[in-house]
Amino acid sequence: MKLIQATLKKGKDKAVLRRHPWVFSGAIAHFDETPADGDWIALQSHEGKVLATGYYSPGSIAIRVLDFKAITNIAEWIQERITLAYQSRQNLGFIAPQTTNCYRLLFAEADMLPGLIVDIYNQTAVIQCHSLGMYKLRDTIAKAVVAVTEVKAVFDKSGDTLKDKTINNKYVLGSPSDQWVVENGHQFSIDWETGQKTGFFLDQRDNRQFVSTISKGKKVLNAFSYSGGFSVYALSGGARVVDSVDISASAIALCNKNVAQNGFEDRHQGIVADGFDYLKSMDEDYDIIILDPPAFAKSQRVTHNALVAYKRLNAMAMKKMRTGSKLLTFSCSQHITAPLFADAVRAAAIEVGKPMRVLHRFTQPMDHPMNIFHPEGEYLKGLLIEIL
Ligand code: SAH
């Protein structure tokens, strides 16, 4: 393992000493050799004290830290991290083959593997690398995941996330297997090869479970439904009818398949439509509306536009809601903080002018933890709003 030495400017070691895993390019005095994207870095203070080991990427976040010490054997270190991550999920009860066999095994900075996501779907792990540094470790990671967990095959989906067009999605270990998983006793078909993200939105598990507890006898709209996670839970909770709306025909096909597999198709309608258009033209008779749009703010630069879009979307739903009905509204944009999102939703409520109140706040589940020194890792936020 070849390491390039990076030395920080005087006084620029404070964030690293606080265990923040990002080193900005402006904090670095010099490298002992010009690093290439993904090269290993040994980081030291201006005074020559060993601070951390990480990898380089060109851009304002120049070094992402894996550990705040020297790492000498990266394969061993990775196996250790993955073992810890697996044990943590196991202790939290996420690995219960009869009821839940899909979960996030590795979540970037929260598992000290910045730039890496690994989701487990029954016997298949889906790896997504968001940086070349992690991608160079892909085979080591894949081997360790198979050694540590119940997984038999590893599918690499980094072709979707890395800019290099020569990197393709493919199986790196094992071969295609059964795509059905079980989550809290509900069955879902996961299309990891061509579906969105790693194939499923595991981060909404707890919020979907909540929906099943309030759905009995209700008419539910699941807008931006993807493969129907919220729809299946609402139906299993006894919803009278559920309409799932998504702009993607393949998402609705998958949603219909999942609803049917769980035996609920007689109370469900899958609709391919733009969510904004649907809200504009629909009747005012839903008891529960779920809004879980894609991230509107993909970067800090477009935060303002995203806030305008969240306000518009929420106002459109609120306009069509009657007394007693409930809105579950989410944002998965990392750049929109929970207070900013609450402001956008409040602005929508002011515009609509109906009495309403916040009953509950939603966040991401325990297999998507947040590194306490890296608050940027908190990204999923939601509000439960009741129209009075
Ligand atoms: N709630 C889902 C995840 C939603 S992801 C779950 O729990 O699994 C966001 C979804 O919004 C994607 O499926 C995407 O296809 C859809 N989408 C994006 N733009 C849209 C639009 N304008 N109208 C409707 N759906 C849209």
Task: Write a structural description.
The protein folds into 3 domains: 4-67, Roll (Archaeosine Trna-guanine Transglycosylase, Chain: A, domain 4); 74-184, Transcription Regulator spoIIAA (2-Layer Sandwich), CATH 3.30.750; 201-387, Vaccinia Virus protein VP39 (Rossmann fold). It starts with a strand and ends with a strand. By secondary structure, it is an alpha/beta fold. The chain has helices at 14-17, 74-91, 132-135, 138-148, 205-214, 229-236, 249-261, 275-281, 303-319, 338-352; strands at 3-8, 22-24, 28-31, 40-44, 50-56, 61-67, 102-107, 116-121, 124-129, 153-156, 170-173, 180-183, 186-189, 219-223, 241-246, 268-272, 288-291, 326-331, 356-362, 381-387. The strands form 4 sheets. Strands 16-15-14-17-18-20-19 form a 7-stranded mixed beta sheet, with helices on both faces. The protein has a 6-stranded mixed beta sheet with strand order 2-6-5-4-1-3. A 5-stranded mixed beta sheet has the order 7-8-9-10-11. It is built from 10 helices and 20 strands. It is 28% helix and 27% strand. The structure holds S-adenosyl-L-homocysteine.
